[in-house]
Amino acid sequence: MTDIFFSRTDTTLGEFAVRALDPFADAELLHGWVTHPKAAFWLMQDASLPDVEREYMAIAAAEHHDAFIGLHEGRPTFLMERYNPAEVELKGLYEAQPGDVGMHFLVAPSDTPVHGFTHAVITTVMAALFDDPATGRVVVEPDVRNAAVHALNKAVGFEIVERIAKPEKDAYLSVCTREQFEATRGATR
Question: Please, which residues have CB within 8 angstroms of residue 44's CB and are 6 or more apart in sequence?
Answer without folding.
Answer: 34, 35, 51, 52, 55
